[in-house]
Specification:
CATH superfamily of the largest domain: MFS general substrate transporter like domains
CATH architecture of the largest domain: Up-down Bundle
Distance between the termini: 20 Å
Strand order of the largest sheet: 1-2
Keywords: Membrane, Transmembrane, Transmembrane helix
Pfam families: MFS_2
Shape: globular
Radius of gyration: 25 Å
Strand content: under 5%
Family: Belongs to the major facilitator superfamily.
InterPro entries: MFS_2, MFS_trans_sf
CATH topology of the largest domain: Growth Hormone, Chain: A
Organism: Philasterides dicentrarchi
Number of helices: 20
């Protein structure tokens, strides 16, 4: 107790000594082994998500030749995913079992993912069955996979603040989690590249990809459940929070929980009534920019494989993909896009500091127009240029999607306690818009000219709309840099101490 009091006294006079003392304090009960176990706990979702976004539409349309069902699968799956994400979070917070609040939901989501993946890729329906059975089969199980995936994603993210009260250690957990996401995507693309060259037909290729990824994913999920003891770790975290509040001198809520929102009105814990978001113009402007960025990302990621097959004609007869070996480029093109995206993402923070987010996004829109024109003029005779074009497309995807996500901070501002409303609404609208567009795209017969139109006109008009929105959208925090952000954080600490 004397040590704790001494820390509090030091903090009033010497900021450096205060921080050094606080850094030595315990923020959670997690060991290094548990931190790594948590970080890879989302790996099954990463693997299944990589298959879904890179190959599912191509698998349904080009390999199984079920284009009429693919449209409904993508629409219902996307809308259901967006609708269920906030509901899972609500139900999770109301759960209380002897295994904890979140662990049962994690187990439920993992089990649903495992059950739904097997019928989608490993067990196919026989020919000649009634259409209603075909529709039910290939809509029900993708929807179930979305349900399981959404459950695991929300629960795994919600574990972070429950396991540690240290912002630095939370950042470490999230950083490692994102690292495994990159590894999962890279693994699926490389695995596909190998299997497409060694297995003699398309159906069997995807059966192997799904089976291997499912086995690895289940091992990672079981390891997570074995190592992460929710009740014990969350109880330690709660105790650390109480001790740190004492150290910081936070004794009563009324003195420190009042924050003024942008309108000068005070709300408890910085929360804003959800209705207030709908009165702000910026909420709609940034929302449209984000949704259009996500739409471009998803459309190009899905349609580029059809473009390579139908427009650039890398094989003579696309109807034979289910019986013949998958082309090399079906896996190599997404891999090049991934490399371009990875290289660009690592440099964007420096670009933001140099020219700002608005100018960065404007440059991204210009590159979209350039790539759209290039996709328009490419022919089977010049298809070699698809390789550098794929890298450039991946770089563009990273620019507009990462910047679109960071712009949501323009809406939230310093009202982080109520940000769940904004993220929830944007997530739902993004998935719904993408589902609707993909539904109409997949309704038509896939020919070379049709795919060329989709790959060029849709991204071009998306870029024009985003550019118009940018011209009319004031970004309040555009000039802030890392130094200013650190000063603000220090001010917050000072308010807590004084």
């Amino acid at each position: 107790m004397e040590e704790v009091q001494s820390i509090g006294r030091i903090s009033k006079f010497d900021n450096i000594t205060y921080k050094q003392s606080l850094n030595k304090y315990k923020f959670d009960g997690m060991t290094e082994k548990q931190m790594w176990a948590f970080s890879q706990g989302h790996f099954q979702n990463d693997l299944q998500g990589a298959i879904w976004f890179n190959f599912l539409p191509f698998y349904l349309v080009a390999v199984l030749r079920k284009g009429h069902i693919a449209a409904w699968t993508l629409l219902i799956g996307q809308v259901f995913d967006g609708f269920m994400s906030p509901l899972v979070g609500i139900f999770c917070e109301k759960t209380d079992t002897k295994y904890g609040q979140k662990t049962p939901w994690y187990f439920f989501g993992t089990l649903i993912c495992f059950i739904s993946t097997i019928p989608m890729y490993i067990i196919q329906l026989p020919e000649g069955i009634p259409d209603w059975i075909d529709y039910t089969y290939y809509i029900l199980f993708p929807v179930l996979q979305n349900l399981g995936g959404a459950t695991v994603m929300i629960v795994h993210m919600s574990f972070v603040p429950a396991l540690t009260c240290s912002r630095m250690r939370r950042d470490v957990l999230n950083s490692r989690r994102n690292t495994f996401s990159f590894i999962g995507n890279f693994f699926i693309l490389v695995l596909s590249l190998i299997i497409f060259q060694t297995v003699d037909n398309g159906v069997s290729s995807f059966r192997w990809i799904a089976g291997i990824s499912l086995a690895i994913g289940m091992v990672s999920s079981i390891y997570f459940l074995y190592v992460i003891e929710e009740i014990e770790l969350t109880n330690v975290c709660k105790k650390c929070v109480q001790d740190l509040k004492y150290v910081l001198g936070i004794i009563t809520k009324s003195k420190y929980a009042k924050f003024a929102n942008e309108n000068g009105e005070e709300t408890d814990d910085g929360k804003v009534n959800w209705k207030q978001w709908f009165t702000e113009r910026l909420f709609y402007q940034i929302g449209c920019i984000y949704m259009l960025a996500r739409l471009y990302f998803n459309i190009v990621s899905i349609m580029i494989l059809f473009y390579v097959v139908h427009t650039l004609k890398i094989i003579k007869n696309p109807e034979e993909l289910s019986e013949k070996q998958m082309p090399f480029d079906v896996a190599f093109i997404p891999l090049l896009m991934w490399i371009g995206s990875l290289l660009t993402s690592s440099k964007l923070e420096k670009v933001y500091a140099l020219i700002g987010k608005k100018n960065t996004l404007t440059i991204g829109m210009g590159i979209i127009c350039l790539t759209s024109f290039t996709y328009w003029v490419l022919t089977p005779a010049t298809r070699f240029f698809i390789y550098p074009l794929a890298i450039l497309t991946g770089m563009t995807q990273a620019i507009i999607l990462t910047t679109g996500i960071t712009l949501i901070g323009e809406v939230v501002g310093n009202r982080g306690a109520s940000s769940s409303y904004v993220y929830g609404i944007y997530c739902f609208l993004d998935k719904t818009l993408t589902g609707i567009v993909l539904y109409y795209v997949c309704q038509a017969k896939f020919t070379g000219d049709y795919i060329r139109d989709v790959m060029t006109k849709l991204p071009f008009f998306t870029a024009v709309l985003v550019w118009i929105l940018l011209l009319t959208t004031p970004l309040k925090f555009e000039q802030k840099n890392k130094e200013e952000a650190l000063l603000e954080e220090n001010d917050e600490i000072k308010q807590l101490r004084d």
